[in-house]
Amino acid sequence: MTEQSRVQPQDGAALLPEPFLNWFARRGWAPRAHQIELLARAQAGKSVLLIAPTGAGKTLAGFLPALVDLANRPKRRPGEAHRGVHTLYISPLKALAVDIERNLGKPVAEIGLAISMETRTGDTPAHKRQRQKFSPPDILLTTPEQLALLIAAPDAKRFFSGLRYVVLDELHSLVTSKRGHLLSLGLARLRRYVPGLQAIGLSATVAEPDELRRWLVAQGLSSPLEGEVPPKAAVGVTSEGTAIRPSAAAATPSARYAGTSPSRGEEPMADLITVAGGAKPEISILDSEERVPWAGHSSRYAIPEIYEAIRKHRTTLLFVNTRSQAEMLFSELWRVNEDTLPIALHHGSLDVSQRRRVEKAMESGSLRAIVATSTLDLGIDWGDVDLVVHVGAPKGASRLAQRIGRANHRLDEPSKAILIPANRFEVLECRAAVEANYLGAQDTPPLADGALDVLAQHILGMACAEAFDADELYAEITSAAPYARLSRETFDRAVDFVATGGYALKSYERYAKIRQTRDGRWRISHPRFAQQYRLNVGTIVEAPYLTLRYARSGRGASRGGPVLGKIEEGFLESIAPGDTFLFAGKVLRLEGIRETEAFVSNAVGNDPRIPVYAGGKFPLSTYLAGEVRAMLADPARWKALPDQVSDWLRFQAEKSVLPRREDLLVETFPRGQRHYMVTYPFEGRLAHQTLGMLLTRRLDRAGARPLGFVATDYSIAVWALDDMGSLFKRGKPPLSTLFDEDMLGDDLEAWLAESWLLKRTFRNCALISGLIEKRHPGQEKSGRQVTVSADLIYDVLRTHEPDHLLLQATRADAATGLLDVSRLAEMLSRIRGRIVHKHLEHISPLAVPVMLEIGRERVAGEANETLLEEASLVEEAMGSG
Amino acid sequence: MTAVPLEKDAVRGGMISVAGELALCDRRGALFFPDHGLLAVSDLHLEKGSSAARRGSLLPPYDTAATLACLKTVIDDFSPKIVVSLGDSFHDGEGSARMPELFRSRLAALMAGRDWFWVSGNHDPDPPAGIGGDSVREISVGSVLFRHEPSREAGEGEIAGHLHPCARIVQRGRSVRRRCFATDGSRVVMPAFGSYTGSLNVLDRAFAGLFRRDGFVAHMLGADRTYAIAGKRLLPG
């Protein structure tokens, strides 16, 4: 909102009150076309979706209708009752809400508006929250979780009675998660309190704007509400650069797993205003003098060139995909930092005070570079960044565009970015991302149906607010776009789940949390359930973390020194006391773990055992995967690639074959004492892990005696004692059978039963749905032996009631989450009849990257029994067991 | 003198010797003394699900069924003459009264034709109501003594539960945590048998001083056998 274009005010004059016009004039600005357009539509009673790039004055546009309405409002007379919240602003980040208060406060003061504005987040002190309840501000800036709490309070209806607008920031990032599901239900409740409520969504460019437009307004009504308009009312203020989703990316998950959306063209939608991006960003891929590695994720080869780029720019923002990459890059940069440039590190695991220091330094312009993970993805304004370096492949075209948007908030000047591929396949992926960016292609994921665990949480919340009638609540919930297709039967099962657990064995009637009273309405049976709800609200389930703390010298795991941050329990589990690792730019030695704290000391030497690369959180997008396959298949496109990469592909064509875009190449070859099968689906690491697991099961049944597999974002390697190539040639089994879609039936079920991935998913669902409670600070010490672990509940439930609502929710999550089954299903159907088998005598050039991961990666698999056996055998051999 | 088919796959487990008595650590968490035809299980925590439900946590009401089903497979395999349930057999004092009739009759069928001892635990200090069997504070058989909580002093020949031991190893960069029998040859702390029972690492402070350092072994429960792991290979957490 810092920049306004210097065009003459035209129609704005008619809509904007005098003080606003004066303010614009004083600043030498004119309101932008989309700001006036949005104001006009809001004043006509419409809900609006504004899609605009960073720096387009999106925030001011979003608030303008509220500010104008509030400015025209008559003054409150002494003694008149408080008017309640006029406008609710919801942001995914606590920090963003604070940021907006600061940035919006300035124009409000300068225009001379008497408008009160306050934040309400988890950090807001209790007394302030209490005060806000009886004396609410005009504009309340808050988060989805706080909204859930507000609407679940008994006085919610009164509190929101004066509400006119809801402004939803960073909508594109909210809608894809369970937070978005919860928020959509909150919005549905607000619309019930205030039927004329208007929603204003602010979003970055997405593939399917219509999904967001439906999200903003009530669905499933026979006739559109006043103020809603049919889809044709969409306007592009400028048409250039609007979102397209190329056909390859438009594929929707198979109906079996995620459910495809039937055409809902007739559903009500918010108006659309699209602002084209300004100057195209200048994105280049580092054409290194050095050899680009075959495999790995470190990008270490490029450190001198990255450092040079930092030296040549004012402020550089370096993005990486994971925390461990951030640690590695930061420490490598400091190794070569001869000029001692101020380079800082920022990731979500660092202690809060350290993160705040870094953010302050960044704002004041005293940093030359900052290495960051996705904690900085969202719209916080970082000022004077003139270069974005993306280390590692971006994994998605839209993700890249949003990250580059961080640099250079001046709309008319091009942003500048350099991509650093960590290995050769990433060169192809980076190239595809750059081309997509040039075309303006978007690959944001399609929206999934609302999750059932979130639904259960919301139902309890609504019972806390006031007794509900099931018919009314069902109508309200299905007016939220993510739940528009929720069947009445599933809704009733969710109510039953909230009441008594929803079990076939009806033994908990007397312990019901909500009960139907004589008037047919459901109410909570005890106030303590409202308390329970408030403590467990929200959908953010953090992985179990341990606090990382310095041990007092020489005393091992004793009570300790300063806190460094927090670290995943899962990571610490894989290392033993005495092992070293990188954290906060330091090499640390694990001394011991006590309860929820890990004690460390500074290690001697610079060579830590670097945290395992746990894979990016985001798998390669379907769109980029398709583009990489297309590029492989088309030698004409290799000209855009560095020589070392195009040589590599030519070599592959010579030694084996390059698959066509829609084909699946399977190579088999012997090496050492083993036989290998390497295949290249390009469907991302998560789907590949699942596929690898299923393929090994099937190969085992076929008698090939598989030993293990590794999966990357691009390919999978399976190794076995038997010659798989010969088996395939003899049709034992034929490859088409091995890759048949029926592997997603019984094989998947059998594997899922034991999979820790599914157990973790179940735990999240159990927490969100309220079946088990979040542990709160101070409770952790109650010890493992008294808490019922989610794993045990999962085992029992799966055996006794496999169709339970929570298991249904768990499977739905797994389809798109950690297992990415939906993507695997699409792939298997795509390659039917298009498998190309090459039985080779030697490893092929294309297979080298994944083969190098063997030994470097932890071997995927669930053979915990084997590990136990090894451990006990060692004992026997040493004679000490 | 044993009539038990120890070779049978279903009962693969580790033989240990406690205070001179031979015992088999079963993979499901039961301890069988072939010379006495005695089977010990500890910390069944029956009706833990309904106990949580009373406090508003509506866990699946199938834990009792699951625990009894598992107990049945163990009893079927060993056909013991004597069964000792080593305390915390019910999750709370009203557990036995609350247990649905269906499960009461299943339990009665397991108890029929053998001696059954309910050792009192901290969760169930009083004898279970209307279930049958003998309720005792402790019971000694041969050279071993069964009691719920391990004593801090003389431990020779003591078989106890209460602490729900588990053990953890890291092998090839991966962590495996399992319930276990903890023993140093002179006493045993048994794993919890109940389907909703959590566990505590044997390296936790709660176990301090119970075992001799040399000869301390964790018999970790596996899918079809137990694995004996020396104490020095175990990790905390």
From TrEMBL, chain A:
GO terms for molecular function: ATP binding; ATP hydrolysis activity; DNA binding; helicase activity; ligase activity. GO terms for biological process: DNA repair. Residues 245-258 have a biased composition (Low complexity). Residues 245-267 are annotated as: Disordered. InterPro entries: ATP-dep_Helicase, DEAD/DEAH_box_helicase_dom, Helicase_ATP-bd, Helicase_C-like, Lhr-like, Lhr-like_DEAD/DEAH_assoc, Lhr_WH_dom, P-loop_NTPase. Residues 302-453 form the Helicase C-terminal domain. Coiled coil: none annotated. Keywords: ATP-binding, DNA damage, DNA repair, DNA-binding, Helicase, Hydrolase, Isomerase, Ligase, Nucleotide-binding. SUPFAM superfamilies: P-loop containing nucleoside triphosphate hydrolases. Residues 39-224 form the Helicase ATP-binding domain. Belongs to the Lhr helicase family. Lhr-Core subfamily. This is DNA ligase-associated DEXH box helicase. It comes from Kumtagia ephedrae.
UniProtKB/TrEMBL annotation, chain B:
Gene3D superfamilies: 3.60.21.10. GO terms for molecular function: hydrolase activity. This is Metallophosphatase. Residues 39-139 form the Calcineurin-like phosphoesterase domain. The lineage of its organism: Bacteria, Pseudomonadati, Pseudomonadota, Alphaproteobacteria, Hyphomicrobiales.
